[in-house]
Each structure stands twice: as structure tokens, then as C-alpha cells.
Amino acid sequence: MTFTLLYSTVFSLLFGIAFVHPVHSADVILNEYNAVPKAGGFLKIGKEDSRLGRREGNGDDWFEVVVVTDHLDMRGWQFVISNRTGVPDIPGPGQEIFTLTLTDEPVWADLRSGTIITVAEDIDATANAYLPEIGEWWINVRANNTAAGKYITAMNFAVSNEDTQFTILDDLGTVAYGPSGEGISPLSGVGLSEVFKLEATPTGAITPSAIEYADGSSSSFGLPNPWTDITGPQIQDFSALRAVVPYFPLTSVVINEINTHSDLPEVDWIELFNTTAAPIDIGGWFISDEVVNLMKYQIPPGTMIPANGYIVFLESTLLFSFNGELGEAAYLSQGDGLGAMTGGRDSTNFGPVENGVSFGRFPNGSGPFFRMSSRTRGDLNSVPDFGPVVINEIMYKALGPFAPPLTGSDAEFIELRNGGLVDAPMAVNYGSAGIFPWRVSGGPSFEFPPTAVVPAQGFTLLVTFDPVLEPLKLAAFRSHYGLLPSTPILGPNGGRLDNYTDSIHLRRPDIPSLGEAPLVLRDSVTYFDFGDWPTGPDGTGPSLERLDPNVPASDSTRWAASLSAKGTPGAENSVVNVPEPTVVAQFFLGSLSLSVLLRIKNRRPQRLTTRPEKNGIEV
Predict the structure, then answer these.
(1) Where are the domains of the chain?
(2) Span 253-380+608-618 CATH architecture
(3) Which of 39, 383, 430, 453 is 20 to 30 A from 102 via CA?
(4) Considering the entire predicted model, what is its pTM?
């Protein structure tokens, strides 16, 4: 773990706040922190983190709090961390105190009860995914001296098994909770292979000295804490806290396709699909494009959606349109028939898209959303549209040794593959409007030069250093991977890839307006080094390779660890090509129901795509 000594044996702050517990019910409570050392440390044999799995360091320095007061504004609040509390400088190593302050970012302005907040030194932020209305209750923010400082102070901190204690201060500097941690409760006992955690359901009645705080041999980063007592396995129950935002995923009726960017005479529309073998009355349900008003449009009473059938709502009926030029979201909320919502909800987020291109589920009715090769309003979805340039290989944690001046971060790369028969220019000339480049965004950030191309049936590598200004690194990189001089290498890509998880988005500029070109998503992947994802690429040598460049590859099933010790940059991947099952094969395998097969067999040659059945609603 990172032990950056900010102050030498600071007692004044601790004495000023020691044992000053709030007299009212707590708004936020400490829930867990990691005590496993980064170098060589593991949870007890056979134990693992619920999210991170079993790994050295167990995620390194991190802690977790739970919001127990609804609509809480935590802008300007502080976490005061005392590591090795009370230990003198001599003989040392001495006490450390770290103060981390939450920024004024809007995410902190209205936190719902039941929210889990984690602060980690080495795990990227997830704050932009926080949305309790669709079941996303977790916020992780990154605090270290190389972070951007968008959500919390950009500084290193440390937690350990040596009497780490926390005090939470509100924006006025008043103690909201604490001090809490080892030395308060429990008085001692948190070991090198354990975490400190609350073994009880979080409520405002939990005090910093509660006996339910204990050492634990397994952890749950960003998830409810599990433990075992004399009655058997237990887990924290967040249902009461989260009842303020009722939610459960809709599965009977789902958003299936959405047309978000249309120019007259075309219109925006949203298609719903009934996944069951019985008709469903969706009268009184709601459709919206904004989470702050989920009841924007109420579906008329008595509206039926046929068994395994479709219903389409046009923008003329909804009285709003979807922002396909810039991207936004769509929500379907189940109604109770009395004008309120039950909590059942389906949703999708979408980015900018070209005029006339829809987003749809693949496979139809059940899969994730992709940009589609054709619009199929009121009918079975087409196949995803992607390529010919795709993200093909990722080296996010290279294994040395490296010849100077190359370092481990310099040896990282992202490989793009062009499956087309002609070179793919990575900038688009829109004539008098200008030349606009493709971009890579997410964790890395890169804008392609105007003359850049990905060769036909070839590859281009993106690296963290500047190949033009750092020729010695370029030579060492080519030597390390045995690359041909003709392999295109571009950079710098704006930062190293994260070793835990990162997102890589490949975006193409659309038709510009007022000097700006919306960036439409052409390929994307968010990788992890835990869970269902291959762990070999996490510093043992191989890269992360795409199984098949000709099918969508947004999840772990389409990626594998390279069979080559250093990956295969600038060449075809080494992993066995496992083609995605064809649509027909998926039908017969049962991924779609038999009723869908019957629907295809008896499909009418002409769909009612231009003649709404009634009031802009097509069934």
C-alpha cells in the first residue's frame, strides 16, 4: 500500500474530534476498509472479494461508506483518515493523517439512502454510472496524486491493519460520524489477511463504537457485506434504505429498438417488445427520455401488446423526441394503473448516432444494445453494424524486462484492426466544414492525425508515448515486440490503461454543425481483470485478444488471453477464432423462444411502418 507521510505524529486533530459522536442519527456510516497489504498480501486462504475476486493486495487502498439519509448533499464533506493511529515517530514509522474532500460535482448533491460510496487509490471512478432509478447504487471515486481530482481530492492515502480510523466531517467541518475503525471497535484484531467491516445492516442507529464492527476474512468492494455467525451465512439488507427509489428490472416488456436521429419526413420512435407468450396490458405505463421525469408520457389505458409482439410509439405521440445527435437515454416504467409507478423499469443509454441509424437489442428482445445495420420498426431486429475498423487487442499490463528507456507503461498498447479491403482513413473530410478526426476515448484519449490510416487487412497500434518525439522508446518498443518497421504506431494516447478495469471507445465524426462534429460510437469494450474476464493479461505477459473481429465483442465471452507470451501486436490474434452463433443457430439453441420462430415463419411481407394503427401507436 502507499504510505505517504503527510504529517508527523499529528495528535491535535485527533484529540479535537476523538470520541465526539453525533447526538443525532447518522447520515453516513463507515462500512468497510481494506487491511490487506499491496505487496504479497492476500485474503485468508480460500477467501475473496465479492467483486474483485482473489487478488494480491485485494484492490490495494480503499474504504467504503453507506448513505443512510435520503437526498443527502455531501458536496464539501471530508473523510479524515488516521493510519497507525497514535504511533510515535520514534521509533516509527509514525502516524499518518489524510484528509480527502468531496468536490462540488453534481453527483454528490442528491445522494439517495442506500448508496454505497467507495474511495480507492487504484480503481477508476464509476460516478457517471450512478443511477438508483435503474438499480445502480454504487459510486466509486479514485483518490491518488495522479488522478484528475474531479470527484475527490487528488492525493494518495493509506489504510492498513494498524489501527486505521475514520472521521467523516460535513461541509461545515462538524463531525458527522466517527472516529470509527480498529482501536475504537474492535479494539484490535484486524489482520494482514482481513478487512475491517460492519457485520450488520446499515442504519442511522449504527454508532462508531458499535460492536457489529469486526475483522473479516472476505470483502465486498462496493457491495453489501457478507459474514457468517452462529446461525449461518448473512448479508447486509439494503431493501429498507433503497425503498425510497423502488426498482426491479422489467423482463416481460422491454425496450427493443429506438430511432433517435431522424430528419423530416422521418420521425423518432421507440419500439417495445413483449417477451412472453401472452398479451400484456401496458396501459398506464410510462415512457421518458429523462430520469428526473420518468412519467413524461403515460401510455393510454387499455393499450395491449400482443404475445411475442411489438408496439411502436412515434415522437408525435410521445410529444418529445430523442436526442440522437448528442445522445441521451430512454426509460420504460411499469405503472400500477392508478397513475403511479411500481418500480419495474427498463432503460438504455445511447450516444450520438448518424441520421437514419437505430439502436436495437441483439439477439432480439434479450441482448445488449448495438447500432443496427438497418431499422426494423415493429419487427425482428437486424444484426449489429460495426467495423471495418475494430478494437482487436489490448495490452494493459505488460511484463518486463524492458530495455531502457522503455518502461512498463510505455509497453502498453491498443491494437486496431481493419478488416476491409481498402485503407481506412481515420479522419473524415466534410469539405468546406473541415476535416474531423476519429477519436479514442474512455480511459485513454487520442485524436488521430489527419493523415492517419489503418491499412487494409492490417493493424495500427496506439501507445502511451510519442513515437515521433521519443524515437528511442519507439525503437525499444519495436524491438520488445519484434515488430516490422512498417507497422503503424501512433501516440501518445493520453494516459496508461488501468490494470483493474478500463473502457475504450472508438468514435467516428458525424456531419458537423457549427464547427463541431458529433462523435458516433463505432466500437467499444470495457475490460476487467476479475470476474468472468481472463486474468492472464494482468501482468503475466499475454495481452487481451478479441476472439473474432467480425462479431460484436462488448463482453468477456468474446475475449481471451493471448497464447503468445507478449501478445500479437501488428499481427493476427493467436486465440482460436470462435464465431458468434448465427441468428438462426441462436433461435434453435433456444436463446429466442419458439414463438419468435413461428412469427418469422408467418411474417407478413409488408409491415405497418408508415400507417400508425391509432394516434401514432403501431401494434
Answers:
(1) 12-242, 253-380+608-618, 389-561
(2) Sandwich (2.60)
(3) 39
(4) 0.84
